[in-house]
Specification:
- The structure is a homotetramer of 336-residue chains.
- Chain A is of the alpha/beta class and 336 residues long.
- Chain A is built from 10 helices and 14 strands.
- Chain A has 2 domains: 121 residues, NAD(P)-binding Rossmann-like Domain (Rossmann fold, 3-Layer(aba) Sandwich); 162 residues, 2-Layer Sandwich (Dihydrodipicolinate Reductase, domain 2).
- In chain A, strands 3-2-1-4-5-7-6 form a 7-stranded parallel sheet, with helices on both faces. Chain A has a 7-stranded mixed sheet with strand order 9-10-8-11-14-13-12.
- The longest helix of chain A is centred in the C-terminal third of the chain and has 15 residues.
- The model of chain A has no long low-confidence stretch (mean pLDDT 97).
- At the A-B interface, helix 7 of A face helix 7 of B.
Chain lengths: 336, 336, 336, 336
Amino acid sequence: MIRAGIFGATGYTGYELVKLLQRHPQVDVVFATSQSFAGQKLSDVYPQAPHLPLILGEDAPLDAVDVVFLCLPHAAAAETAVTALTAGVTVIDLSADFRLKDANTYASWYDKTHPAPHLLAEAVYGLTEFTRAQLTGARLVATPGCYPTSILLPLRPLLTSNLPITGPIIADAKSGISGAGRTPKQNTHFVEAHNNFSPYKIGRSHRHLPEIEQVMGWFRQDTPPLIFSPHLLPVERGILSTIYVNFVERVTLEEIRPYFTAMYANEPFICLLPDGELATLAHVTRTNRCAIGLTLAGNTLVITSAIDNLVKGAAGQAVQNMNVVFGIEETTGLTV
Amino acid sequence: MIRAGIFGATGYTGYELVKLLQRHPQVDVVFATSQSFAGQKLSDVYPQAPHLPLILGEDAPLDAVDVVFLCLPHAAAAETAVTALTAGVTVIDLSADFRLKDANTYASWYDKTHPAPHLLAEAVYGLTEFTRAQLTGARLVATPGCYPTSILLPLRPLLTSNLPITGPIIADAKSGISGAGRTPKQNTHFVEAHNNFSPYKIGRSHRHLPEIEQVMGWFRQDTPPLIFSPHLLPVERGILSTIYVNFVERVTLEEIRPYFTAMYANEPFICLLPDGELATLAHVTRTNRCAIGLTLAGNTLVITSAIDNLVKGAAGQAVQNMNVVFGIEETTGLTV
Amino acid sequence: MIRAGIFGATGYTGYELVKLLQRHPQVDVVFATSQSFAGQKLSDVYPQAPHLPLILGEDAPLDAVDVVFLCLPHAAAAETAVTALTAGVTVIDLSADFRLKDANTYASWYDKTHPAPHLLAEAVYGLTEFTRAQLTGARLVATPGCYPTSILLPLRPLLTSNLPITGPIIADAKSGISGAGRTPKQNTHFVEAHNNFSPYKIGRSHRHLPEIEQVMGWFRQDTPPLIFSPHLLPVERGILSTIYVNFVERVTLEEIRPYFTAMYANEPFICLLPDGELATLAHVTRTNRCAIGLTLAGNTLVITSAIDNLVKGAAGQAVQNMNVVFGIEETTGLTV
Amino acid sequence: MIRAGIFGATGYTGYELVKLLQRHPQVDVVFATSQSFAGQKLSDVYPQAPHLPLILGEDAPLDAVDVVFLCLPHAAAAETAVTALTAGVTVIDLSADFRLKDANTYASWYDKTHPAPHLLAEAVYGLTEFTRAQLTGARLVATPGCYPTSILLPLRPLLTSNLPITGPIIADAKSGISGAGRTPKQNTHFVEAHNNFSPYKIGRSHRHLPEIEQVMGWFRQDTPPLIFSPHLLPVERGILSTIYVNFVERVTLEEIRPYFTAMYANEPFICLLPDGELATLAHVTRTNRCAIGLTLAGNTLVITSAIDNLVKGAAGQAVQNMNVVFGIEETTGLTV
């Protein structure tokens, strides 16, 4: 049994992770931390949750676990990672701290000096389908952002192909409101959100943009720039990204689809939809899937890509990463 | 033209009132206050709102208005009422401060010593259909709570009848989330509320209980006790109260209905539904109506009563009261 | 392994059942029928569903299964039950056909002559917590209605107690829209339902009333009449019933609670909430639980009772019944 | 007073139109038709509606009206238009029948031979801000589609400018579910839609595509192709279109914005948002506004454009057109 600790168990991502780990047949949850609810139980915060005691992060018994999951604010996550690694514990970070490889880029997007730049090179970017080899036995995993997961998975087959893409690539993304976190804010108030739909940080201003472009750069030199437009969607969970990729010349779906099939046909969590079927949230909510639909319109490929932001976009992918790190069957504890 | 000022214009009730008054053909909105947004405009808070400047309450030019509407927290409202009355301005209060006639009852339910107990006797309880005569020319009006409005309107014909009611009377009420106010809280977070439905302060513990029972007592001696169960409903606006009244002996709808008709047939805002039709939120949202349906089941009358909590339950009724106070046509500026 | 067939797999209840049975470690789903979608796969109807072939009911291989679940319209269910029983297959019916013990009562509420009145005596009413002994080895199980489950579970400890109840008992119930079935109707249209809340068939006119009163009668002679008011709630799933029980004289929670504890403390699916905590949908959605909260107000006990209408109110309880019938651990395959 | 008749008053567009016309100070609603509800009243269909009698279309007294509004299915609208024009009545059509100027294009997109091709040249495309001159005194007006309105309004200043646009132009549009009409369908069932978000007919397959491209062609020769992706959004009303326009070379917002200001600064219904503010549904629901936000990202202009699909996208714009046709103040009866 893998002994696991969860830092930050009371946010939406942390709670989703607790639920997944409690059902995981090869994991024991040893502790869960919460700075706000320490001394209470997780069931005091969520009525369906188990009666898991919540402790302060500084009281976490690192010597009793094999792995910790960090569902902490950025910067706090990196500091905890240092402590955990020093104690010999594997770290699966769900914050943004180890996603960007460059400390200066991090500083400019996250308004903080990186607390542990020496670890950036070692951290494995845990978009599992991309980095399995490096994940095996890794000490430090950076679980990708939710939007990046939904956008990078369908872009990779195109970027690694020789298809003649011309930019910009446009990703028009819509996220359920759990993506905004559990802390009540005006824009997550039911009355403001329920009959509304609103774009935010569109163009080139959202923090997930440099993360996506960094990974795009791994797959093709001179990748076109990304225009990324997130929107707040009045549902609890799920991300749908509608992605537009232009080709220099006419290409057919018959030419495009094999790149996707070759890369994903055997991937348990990638659901390539047949011609004419579009990805929707209903394909993926409460699963670790990414559903991908392909539509060609003139010289433009319109990709619909759907994930559950809390599962494949966060806690599920973290568990998938843990499975690979510890060498157990990758789908264990996850809904295919 | 009636010159009006609004204290507390940025809450849901205040904004609803601004919208109603701006459309009212006999009102000029002279000022609007906000402690949090003073210096900004109302359009900075709500994207559809007019560019109304927001000022601090203490800067409000009381000498420039005939009437003020108080959409303030309790206690703060009473203090502002004293100032406004001293300045010779009519006060229409939408807080709870002048609803209860007894300062001790107020203190025990609202955890504050009443700031102006000497005004309690003068304040007119502005459930307009009940107190028109006293409202005409009144200086100080206490606009009722939203739940009390939805419950008292259908109860009055029964209480003033000689029908043999036996207690307790049960009011199972469901309110849209705007009733919880604009300040973000955990239970109004979209993710917590959207797929949920939750009772709160049920039985005899909600602050509207003493208000309802006080008014019930005006209509019948030895009224039965009220059991009042509010629930939080995942819609933006609207209250549906399902009310159960037991009779000592069998009574027919033919005997009951005339009491309602006699009292309400000519009321412009009371919509008595025909036999077999039940009140729903769809009957009333964005109107100043109260829809009432009557269903007899054995010796129990089941009343369905619907209002829009922000209109007939708050801002609309406040305008209706203003119309009566100033002697203009009662329906002016309101949706019948 | 128990070999199971599902009749009517494409409705909301049928699909919920497929999901539960596919995860059940001791069940093989052998066939699934659909009159509308025969020839297609369940994944053509629900994007997350397995690729389960759908066949016509008349083509179902009854000789290949040990048990069938009937998620069929009433009357059709009884006819299929006869066929299945004749073939020696255990029947777990989720329709209303075998819930009422009296064929005349059935005829008057369901507008049909009962197709198999000779089976009514044998059919076991499968509110599992009530009838475990009879369920073991039963050939024919009538899974209760969703509203009756939410109302009868908390009423039983009161009815079997010697507490001095006086009538009527009032059950004000609110159900998510999946309870109205998958066939599109005007009142389930998103635009009609989303910002609405509406009572329907209130008082003594809903088909679940005779079912509830029948079972109440098993527990106490001269039970008070029930007033039952269902409402359509704009959420996908879940029922919250707020139930009002009056006592002839003052009773304390300390006197009441032991009756609940004695009956339910060891029940895996009954979640008795501590004093002051009220049941909400959030306690139960996607679980087989019934959460029960008790609040005393004067001489009235206000019970809040929540279930997931598709799980404990239908498919989950059907699986729970199957577990008991076949002598396997009752919680197998279900979320406690 | 303008005497008006409404064909097809019980759909969402028809009912919205009734509400607008009943409040319009210079219109008398003389009749309203419904093939499904003839003989009943509009209040039998919508609980807040006026008690307007519904008659069969063939019984409509065309001699008693000055103008008719057609909220009918395509083809049926054209046939009624012929009859009304013959009777000397002005026609404001809200269907698709007179939007496309070419009968062959119509036939290929709407699967019908156009019933009245001789009227296509005369029909004025009523995107009011574009065609005011032709609308004055027109006999036949084609009110644009909802998506085209939201997309064409912000595109026009760019297309008539000399800014160096390079294609394709991408319009990623999200519509509330009232856009799918009142007839219940599987995809508008509350349970299917409420927690879902789904693209449909994306790329170059939706019927509004040829309409948009036709009008784009009026403003610039060699317009780039449009990629148009509609999505079904779980709200009642509102369309947000996120539109991506690429420039051949870097252009600044300071160069772009004057084209918008010049065209729209004095338009009462066009709300140009300041730099940094993005259009949301909250800007426009229940108004006749179009809110437009401009964001530059590299060489791409990201436009956010919001309307209420039932108002500026249908009934409101129809009334705006009527006002112009009859020479009355354009904003009469509409919410600016």
